[in-house]
Design a protein that fits this description.
This protein is an alpha/beta fold. Helix content is about 40%, strand content about 15%. Helix 18 links the parallel strand 23 and strand 24.
Length: about 725
């Protein structure tokens, strides 16, 4: 097959005048036909200078350090790959974790370990792309080169050096993990696609989904156990007995036909179905006969799909061989579009060819050895048809402090919306992506939108104004909160001066002077397209301006009707109290709310600020309620944004953080909810209205789940008892 594909690509390239590279990929980089596949490719293409062996795959926990390939465990420890169950594959097993020795083992000594070359982490991290290129150009022709990598950035640097070497004539064939392809093509990571993103029909009349599992690696078995136990009342399991499948052909066909008929009825009735092979691994006497056993199992799964009549809502194929055969042989895929990820490291395809069995069906290629124990369960749950007992609770509202103003208990933070080119904030969503999310938030009952004039240099406020106009939202139906202090550089929309100082080009463009307060409010009103601001907050305190000037200017804005309520954000309690009591002594408007950094990992507001606000009847609207994402995922899971998040590293560095996050995870599992719901419910148990950043419709839909979480006194003690006081870096 490799020879056929390579010859076809070579002929097509010659016809079109296009360049190409061959990357040999599989369910597992080390388990598979090595060195047979690169040799077959060379038969069609001619000999190349270098075979690159790069099994690194960060999402799958596959790391290469000092030429040894490791598998990362959930606790963060590393196991040499040859010591894992993956290496004991009956057909493609191996005994060496050191990739030099692995090459020697798989080539049966034709390539000795000492002949194998490598690009080290030192080459990549200290030498950079130029040293990588130098090393590749220096290796002998017909060499195997190992790539060491621990994070995606390592692979990115290697690729830069590789391109330099190729530009100078080096020819290469690759045997790699998925990470290399993303780095080579410059594909930026994107969040997993939700059911909403896919426009998946989740109505009561929609058909059920189908999960097919043929993989036998231990991780797949663990994930299937999690799926079947976690979705016990919402999933129908059909098990194909492998022993029966290996009997006479007639018995095999009857077993599969019966399974397809049963699945048809369930799927048509809107029930999700798991078709899995029995979990007892049956192998042959040798590698060849074991491969034949695997072939029979794969053919049975293909036959099942061919016999199936009802079109499922989606198909998840678990296992490399399973997903390949199910797509090409069972469903007739010839070409499919890679839409994105269903979960980290789990590709999602769509084939729109009319000749395929189910054109347009979402098809998930779920490798057997990728994901955490609950990844499959969570994916199936997130794509499920909501049942009456899983309906999300409605939005709740409460008065802001002692005022008469009612706000949604979840406030939508709008820093997420604005200019993606705003310096240091590539995660910001532009207007066309932002508007539907604002409308979705409004539709689920969020009536309060929090922003600041400095966010994206005013574009965040402008998008809120566009939202009101595009969807004809009555101004009286929403509460708009904005802040002032920092500069708003509308003529330099991508700029973000850090630190910003009230001097030079920025003189009087920031701070809390009467002049700047009035001008900032006029600018906010213009961008918002409204005649008043519901809540105007001080983003930070200007210590160079007298409290009397600040509070009198704010009071005058209230009397003019341009501002209705006042708030403040992140300052020392004595500073806030001073402002509050200067206003009281002069009969001026006092504060209605305080927005401070408060979450399970940073609780320093509880020293003085929160007790003061409670005593004064001032509402609490904490920012970063899930600690910049740390409270939404397992401790050892990292996103690319989190790895580059300097503020998270600055603010959340308590030695107790890991213990607290693990307690949040455990409690979420016990209550059957997300970790973020636990974190938000904890804040709301203190009568706080957290500001939440929600960048997808799925997250907006799921946010109200927190209202259904009941935290007992024991739960609160369990979440809080590990905390120890921290310094105050966030002010």
């Amino acid at each position: 097959m490799i020879r056929t594909i390579c010859k076809a690509v070579k002929d097509a390239a010659a016809t079109t005048g296009k360049d190409f590279e061959i990357v040999l990929r599989g369910d597992s980089t080390l388990r598979g036909h090595f060195p047979d596949e690169p040799e077959a490719a060379e038969e069609a293409l001619g000999e190349v200078d270098i075979w690159v062996l790069a099994p690194f795959f960060e999402q799958g926990g596959r790391l290469t350090i000092d030429d040894v390939h490791y598998v990362a465990n959930p606790d963060g420890s590393l196991t040499p790959a040859a010591q894992t169950p993956f290496a004991r594959d009956a057909t493609f097993g191996y005994t060496q974790s050191n990739l030099r020795q692995y090459v020697q083992e798989k080539t049966k000594g034709q390539i000795a370990a000492e002949q194998v070359r490598s690009i080290t982490l030192d080459d990549i991290r200290n030498g950079g792309a130029s040293r990588v290129a130098e090393r590749l150009l220096a290796v002998e022709r017909r060499s195997v080169v190992i790539v060491n990598a621990v994070v995606t950035a390592d692979m990115d640097v290697f690729v830069q050096g590789l391109l330099q070497a190729r530009s100078k004539g080096k020819s290469v064939i690759y045997r790699t993990g998925a990470a290399f392809v993303s780095s080579r093509l410059g594909i930026r990571p994107i969040p997993p696609l939700s059911a909403t993103d896919l426009k998946l029909d989740r109505s009561k009349s929609a058909p059920g989904g189908l999960i097919i599992a043929g993989s036998y690696v231990p991780k797949t078995t663990q994930q299937l156990e999690s799926l079947t136990s976690g979705r016990v009342s919402h999933l129908h399991v059909i098990t194909l007995d492998v022993g029966q499948l290996l009997d006479a052909a007639n018995s095999t066909q009857r077993t599969v036909l019966d399974a397809a008929k049963k699945a048809d009825e369930l799927i048509a009735d809107g029930k999700d179905v798991l078709l899995m092979t029995s979990r007892k691994l049956i192998t042959g006497a040798d590698a060849l006969s074991s491969l034949q056993v695997g072939t029979i199992i794969a053919e049975s799964l293909v036959l099942f799909l061919r016999c199936l009549i009802s079109k499922p809502r989606y198909i998840i194929a678990k296992g490399g061989i399973t997903s390949s055969d199910a797509a090409t042989k069972g469903l007739g895929f010839k070409r499919a579009k890679i839409c994105g990820q269903a979960a980290p490291g789990v590709p999602l395809w769509r084939c729109n060819e009319k000749t395929s069995k189910y054109p347009g069906i979402p098809y998930v290629v779920f490798p057997g050895n990728v994901g955490e124990k609950d990844t499959l369960r969570d994916l199936v749950a997130n794509w499920a048809i909501p049942s009456p007992d899983t309906a999300k609770p409605p939005m709740q509202y409460q008065r802001l402090g002692n005022s008469g103003l009612k706000v949604s208990r979840l406030i939508l933070g709008c820093m997420t919306f604005g200019n993606p080119k705003w310096e240091g904030s590539p995660w910001v969503l532009g207007e066309e992506k932002a508007l539907p999310l604002l409308k979705k938030a409004y539709d689920v009952g969020i009536n309060t939108f929090e922003t600041a004039n400095t966010y994206s240099n005013g574009q965040s406020e402008a998008i809120i104004g566009s939202f009101l106009r595009r969807y004809n939202i009555p101004r009286s139906r929403v509460v708009i909160m904005t802040k002032l202090y920092y500069p708003t550089l509308e003529d330099q929309p991508d700029s973000r001066p850090q630190p910003a100082r009230n001097d030079g080009a920025l003189v009087n463009q920031m701070g809390l002077s009467r002049k700047h307060i009035f001008e900032a409010v006029e600018g906010s009103l213009r961008r918002l397209g409204t005649s008043y601001i519901d809540v105007l907050s001080l983003h930070r305190l200007d210590t160079q301006t007298s409290p009397e000037e600040i509070m009198s200017a704010l009071h005058d804005l209230v009397k003019m009707g341009k501002v209705h309520y006042l708030g403040a954000s992140s300052m020392h309690c004595w500073q806030f109290a001073r402002l509050q009591y200067i206003a009281k002594m002069n009969g001026w408007t006092t504060f209605t709310c305080m927005s401070g950094l408060h979450n399970l990992l940073y609780r320093e507001e509880e020293r003085e600020m929160i007790p003061f606000c409670n005593a004064e009847g001032i509402g609490l609207v904490p920012w970063s309620p899930v600690a910049r994402g740390l409270l939404t995922r397992k401790w050892n899971e990292q996103t690319e944004r989190a790895q580059q998040d300097a503020k998270a590293k600055k603010w959340f560095q308590g030695g107790q953080d890991e213990a607290i996050v693990k307690r949040v995870e455990k409690l979420a599992n016990a209550k059957g909810c997300s970790m973020s719901s636990i974190a938000l419910a904890w804040l709301m148990s203190n009568n706080e209205c957290p500001i939440v950043g929600l960048n997808s419709e799925a997250r907006i839909e799921a946010a109200s789940e927190a209202f259904a979480v009941n935290l007992t006194e024991d739960d609160l003690v369990y979440l809080e008892e590990c905390y120890r006081p921290l310094a105050l870096p966030a002010i």
